[in-house]
Design a protein that fits this description.
Helices cover about 25% and strands about 25% of the residues. It is an alpha/beta fold. It has an eight-stranded mixed sheet with strand order 1-2-4-3-5-6-8-11, sandwiched between helices. A hairpin with a 5-residue loop joins strand 17 and strand 18. Helix 3 crosses helix 4. The chain folds into two domains: about 300 residues, Rossmann fold, CATH 3.40.50; about 70 residues, Sandwich (Immunoglobulin-like). The chain is globular. The chain starts with a helix and ends with a strand. It has seven helices and 18 strands. This is Carboxylesterase family protein. It comes from Hymenobacter polaris. GO terms for molecular function: hydrolase activity. Keywords: Hydrolase, Signal.
C-alpha cells in the first residue's frame, strides 16, 4: 500500500508540474494545418461581472475547434483582443484569423470578450493611473474566469474535450495585458497599493466558475506590458512575446502607455523576457526592429511571423508534463506542514507563528476543484476529513507552495 501512495504522490497533477504524459504531437498535429477548416461556436457565455459603471455584463466568447477532429484531449488557447480597454471585439479581423489558423493545427481556441472602459478624469491625473490599472485587472480577472470555465467543463460534460493541464493565456495589446496578469499575477502583494483589490474581486476576481484553478501552461504576449516585471517569478509559466521596438503605444522597454490611454507606467516585452530568462523560465522574444504597435494586425508578413513563432514555441511544451491545476508552481518551500500523511480522519497542520497573514486556506482535489475553504484560528490546526472520499488533495494558501494531503 505504501508504494501505491508513493506513486500517487509522484503522479499528483495539482502540485508544481503535473506528471501527466505530454500530448500526442505526431503526424504534424500542432505544427501543420492538418485540418481543412475550423468550426466556430459563437457567443458562448463563460461568466458575468460588474463593469466600471456598475452594470452587469455577460461575458461571451467564440470557441474555435478543428473541424472533424476526434481527439478527446486537446490543448486550449484563450485569446483576448486588443483595443486599449476601450474598444475591440472577439470578432475583429486579427483574432478571427489568428484563432482560425491555430484551430487548423489542432488547438481548441477561445476568443473572449472582456470588460472594457474606465472613467477618466483628465490626462496626467493620478486617478487615471488607477482607473487604467483597474481596467487591466478586470481584463485579467475575466480571462481567469474563462480558464476556470473550461476546467469546470473538463471536470464535467467535456463539451470542448480539452486537456485541463494544457491551457494557454494569449492576447494582443490590451489583451496581452490580461494574458500576462492571468499567467503571473497571483499574489495580492503584486497588485498596486492604490487599487482596492477586495472591491475588484480579490486576486482571482469573481467573473465566474469559482473553485477551479486559473493556472496556465504558457503565456503569449503580443505587444503587451505589465505594471512590474517582478510579477514573473521562478517556476512560473513559459513566456512567448512579440513586440515592435518602435512601439509608441505600449513601450517595448518601459514608459507611459500611449496617447489614447490615461497615463500609467508599464514594462514591455524588452524587460519582461529578460526577467523570465534570468529566472530560468523558458521564453522566446520576437523583436520587430523599428516596428510600431501590433504590426502583425496590419501586415500579413508580420502576422505570419507571429503565428510561426507561437506555433514553434508551444509545440515542444505539449510534449512535456502538464502544469499545476490546484496551484501555480512556487520556487519556495511551503511555510506549513501537514501530518500524518496519509491520514484516515484528521490531518494536523503546523503553521508559522504569524499564521494570520496567510489568510484563507483551500483544499483542492486532483481536478483542481476547491472542496473546502477555512481560515485557521491558531498555529496548530486540524483538518478533518469529514465526508471527503479517499484520495489525493492539495492544501494551499494564496502565494504559498501547496502541500500534499492524502486521505486513506
Amino acid at each position: 500500500m505504501k508504494y501505491l501512495y508513493l506513486w500517487l504522490l509522484l503522479a499528483l497533477p495539482t502540485l508544481g508540474r503535473a506528471q501527466t504524459a505530454g500530448l500526442d504531437t505526431t503526424r504534424g498535429r500542432y505544427y501543420q494545418p492538418v485540418f481543412a477548416s475550423a468550426s466556430v461556436t459563437r457567443d458562448v457565455a463563460y461568466g458575468s461581472a460588474t463593469t466600471y459603471a456598475g452594470a452587469t455584463q455577460t461575458l461571451l466568447m467564440d470557441v474555435y475547434q478543428p473541424a472533424g477532429d476526434t481527439v478527446q484531449r486537446r490543448p486550449l488557447i484563450i485569446f483576448a483582443h486588443g483595443g486599449g480597454f476601450i474598444a475591440g471585439t472577439k470578432a475583429d479581423a486579427y483574432p478571427v484569423a489568428f484563432c482560425t489558423r491555430l484551430a487548423r493545427l489542432g488547438y481548441v481556441v477561445a476568443s473572449i470578450e472582456y470588460r472594457l472602459g474606465y472613467a477618466a478624469t483628465g490626462f496626467g491625473a493620478a486617478a487615471d493611473t488607477a482607473k487604467i490599472a483597474a481596467a487591466a485587472l478586470r481584463g485579467g480577472f475575466d480571462m481567469k474566469a474563462a480558464v476556470r470555465y473550461f476546467r469546470q467543463d473538463a471536470a464535467g460534460p467535456k463539451t470542448y474535450r480539452i486537456q485541463p493541464s494544457y491551457v494557454v493565456a494569449a492576447g494582443s495589446s490590451a489583451g496581452a495585458f490580461a494574458a500576462l496578469e492571468t499567467g503571473y499575477l497571483d499574489k495580492a502583494s503584486e497588485v498596486p497599493s492604490y487599487l482596492d483589490l477586495a472591491a475588484l474581486g480579490g486576486i482571482e476576481g469573481n467573473s465566474g466558475s469559482p473553485g477551479y484553478s486559473s493556472a496556465v501552461a504558457a503565456v503569449i504576449n503580443l505587444s503587451g506590458a505589465t505594471e512590474s516585471p517582478s510579477i514573473i517569478e521562478a517556476g512560473n509559466a513559459p513566456l512567448c512575446s512579440a513586440h515592435g521596438t518602435a512601439d509608441t503605444t505600449v513601450p517595448y522597454f518601459q514608459g507611459r502607455i500611449g496617447s489614447l490611454l490615461p497615463p500609467k507606467y508599464v514594462y514591455g516585452s524588452g524587460r519582461l523576457n529578460p526577467r523570465a530568462a534570468s529566472l530560468g523560465i523558458t521564453n522566446v522574444l520576437r523583436r520587430f526592429s523599428k516596428a510600431g504597435h501590433v504590426p502583425f494586425e496590419a501586415s500579413q508578413a508580420y502576422a505570419d511571423t507571429v503565428f510561426w513563432t507561437v506555433r514553434d514555441f508551444l509545440r515542444p511544451l505539449l510534449k512535456r508534463s502538464g502544469v499545476a491545476l490546484a496551484a501555480r508552481a512556487a520556487a519556495a518551500p511551503a511555510v506549513f506542514q501537514a501530518y500524518p500523511n496519509p491520514a484516515r480522519e484528521v490531518v494536523q497542520l503546523a503553521l508559522p507563528a504569524d499564521f494570520a497573514h496567510l489568510g484563507e486556506a483551500e483544499l483542492l482535489d486532483v481536478t483542481g476543484r476547491v472542496v473546502r475553504r477555512f481560515r485557521p484560528q491558531a498555529p496548530t490546526e486540524q483538518l478533518p476529513r469529514g465526508g471527503l472520499p479517499a484520495g489525493l488533495y492539495a492544501l494551499r494558501f494564496a502565494g504559498q507552495a501547496p502541500v500534499r494531503v492524502v486521505f486513506e
